[in-house]
Amino acid sequence: MARRPLPRILTGSAFSGRAPLARGRDLARSAADGAFDVLHPLITISRGLRRLTVAGRERWAATPKEQRGPLCFLVAAGGLIVALVPYGPLLALIAVMAVSAWAGREQPPEEETGPSEAETGRLQALYEALVPYLSVEGDPSPLYAHDGDWEGAFTEYAFDDDGRLEQLRLTYPAYFTDGEDEARLRVEQVLHAKSGRGREYHFAWDEAANELLMTVLGALPTDIAAQYFVTAPGETVLGFTDPDSVQRTLPVVRGAEAGDAPPVVWRTGRRSTEPHLLALGQPGTGATTLLRSIALQALRHGDVLVVDGSGTGEFGCLTGRRGVLAVESGLSGTLATLEWAAHETERRLIAANRARQAGAPEPADTRRPLWIIADRLTALTHLAAVAGRDDPQRLLQVPLRHGRAAQVTVVVADQFESAELLSEPVRAHTKARIVLGPATVEEVRAVLGEPPHTTPTPQVPPGRGYARLGSGPVLRLQVPATPDPYDEATGEAHRQAVVALLPERTVPAEAADVHAPVSFTKRSVAVDVVPVDAQE
After folding, report:
1. Would you call 269 helix, strand, or coil by DSSP?
2. Which of 60, 119, 166, 169 fits 156 for a cystine, CB–CB 3.0-4.6 Å?
3. CA dist 373 → 295, 304, 326, 433, 464 (Å)
């Protein structure tokens, strides 16, 4: 006998009720969403009231006890004024609801700012590398220990888009000898090696807080050409440095754009503490460019004497120009020029002293600055020693010792290989120092008296170096592009910028003999000597 099918209500699908249950869930979810949309303003206002209440409690707890009474009186007075104003309570209720709705709005989720896995590995490796230098045996709670936590030592850090460390602030223990240059240098070398070579880092030591801040420095601008800088008389722009190193900027033109740049300004004159300058560097690092830039700025307010010891004619563009007294490259002309400069310094001192004693103003010619610019003077010293003549550096003693009072400034540039031939007066009286080109920490310290706070870079453009004025800090320096305008190998724009700064000629170019030395001594009259026998 055939079996009848069971009623639908007793089948498995109907008995289980899966389809009605699914529909019930959808209905419940839709009802909940609708109720949330309806009650969302009330929920937002409630959340805002709760946040305002918590903030009020924290503010009340932070208020000193002696100020709570006046605060309660102020609140009560405000409530009384609101109650007396027409529609005041209603407006106050609306304002409270609006503020609560603003305070109760949903805040966007905070983005994770922690380091990535690769960045964490870099920080941990850097931390492990510093352990031998910032820890000692017997420390009960060492800040730096193998397999330790770097988060307690590195308080701030930042990475660039390539994942390389560009800023790091670390804390070191109080027993670390941060006052010794050798100890500092070891730590800086480790940070330089582990953070990535090929970049220049600046290290700022805070001995009081036992902290070290390492930052990556950008390249200094090399496209600033020679131009008229907005400076006062007695100020000379040696170059440009980092914005955080000086508290001054100058308007400059970079190509076709105008902007501001932080300069390294050297002040000369009677009130200067570093009236003379010495620049050292390797061949081709921009020492002659620096002297040419200084000479062009000095010609705006004074006279210039140039001694080109190398004899390459790098200062030929200044020959015969207004304010240029002489451009010498030979030994005889240099000796005569420097001897006249020494006598001129003495004359200025005597004339100024007599004017002061008489109560009269100083003569105008004693107030006009005189610049003595000497490039590779040690080469002429060697020639003078071979020829048995006087050392040209000896003639610089009077301008170096008494030049500040006589408005005479001496600028000397030479190379590291011949620095030991510099005389003692040149070393002692040149308080403004510049190092150009690649140099070791020991060489920079020997010239500037203090090591640089930055790491050297493998690629150094011409005119790049360090400067220190007196006892000031060591600054990065980029000399303005001031090439020889007669050198066709340089850029046309930079050469034209130098030509625009040259004074007018006072001697025609055809009549100016570059090779004939200019003598400041009185020429002797030639007399024909007739033998006695011939007279008889």
Report:
1. coil
2. 169
3. 8, 7, 11, 14, 20
Alpha carbon distance 28, 24 (integer Å): 6
Interior angle at CA 497, CA 494 and CA 501, nearest 5:
145
Residues ≥6 apart with Cβ < 8 Å to 207: 178, 179
288 is in an annotated binding site: yes
Q: What is the DSSP string of 459-490?
A: ---TTEEEEEETTS--EEEE--B---TT-TTS
381 is in an annotated binding site: no
Task: State how far the Cα of 74 lies from the Cα of 311, in Å rounded to an integer.
Answer: 86
**Is 287 annotated for ligand binding?**
yes
Q: Which amino acid is at 444?
A: V
Residue 449 labelled as part of a binding site: no
From first to last of the 536 residues of the chain, give the pLDDT tens digit. 455 554 554 444 444 455 666 676 777 777 666 666 666 788 888 888 888 888 888 888 888 888 888 888 888 888 888 888 888 888 888 888 888 888 877 766 655 566 788 889 999 999 999 999 999 888 888 999 998 889 989 999 999 888 889 999 999 999 999 888 889 989 999 999 888 878 889 999 999 999 999 999 888 999 999 999 999 999 999 999 999 899 999 999 987 889 999 999 999 988 899 999 999 999 989 999 999 999 999 999 999 999 999 888 899 999 999 999 999 999 999 999 999 999 999 999 999 999 999 999 999 999 999 999 999 999 999 899 999 999 999 999 999 999 999 999 999 999 999 999 999 999 999 999 999 999 988 899 999 999 888 887 767 899 999 999 999 999 999 999 999 999 888 889 999 999 999 999 987 655 554 444 444 443 443 334 334 343 33
Report the alpha-carbon distance of residue 11 to residue 17 in Å, rounded.
Answer: 10
Is 496 one of the annotated binding-site residues? no
Q: Tell me the C-alpha distance between 480 and 21, whole Å.
A: 83
The CA distances from residue 139 to 56, 142, 173, 175, 300, in Å, are 46, 5, 10, 10, 63
CB neighbourhood size of 242 (10 A): 16
Assign 105 to helix, strand or coil.
coil
Domains, the chain, in order of start with CATH, read: 117-217 (no CATH), 235-535 (3.40.50.300)
Is 534 flagged in the annotation as binding? no
The per-residue DSSP string of 43-111 comes to HHHHHHHHHHHHHHHHHHHHS-HHHHHHHHHHHHHHHHHHHHSTTHHHHHHHHHHHHHHHHTSPPPPPP
Contact status, residue 517 vs residue 335, Cβ threshold 8 Å: no
Give the strand order in the sheet containing 154-159: 154-159, 165-171, 211-217, 200-206
3-state SS assignment for residue 236: strand
Whole-structure pTM value: 0.73
Beta bridge mates, 171: 211
CB 264, CB 475: distance < 8 Å: yes
In sequence order, which residues have a C-beta less than 8 Å from that of residue 469 and are 6 or more positions away?
264, 266, 274, 431, 432
